[in-house]
Amino acid sequence: MNRIEKILHGLRREGRGLEIGPSHNPVAPKRGGFRVETVDHLDRDGLIAKYRGHGVDLDRIEPVDHVWQGQALTDIIRDHGQYDWIIASHVIEHVPDLVGFVNQCATLLAPEGVLSLAVPDLRNSFDCMRWPTTTGELLQAHVDRRKTHGPGKVFDYFTTVVSRDGAIVWGKPGPGRYALVHSFEQAEQFMREAIETGAYRDLHTWVFTPTSFRLAIADLRRLGMLAMGETRFFDSVDGEFHVSLGKQAPLPEIDRIQWMQRIRSELPELLG
Question: How high is the pLDDT of residue 268?
Answer without folding.
Answer: 65
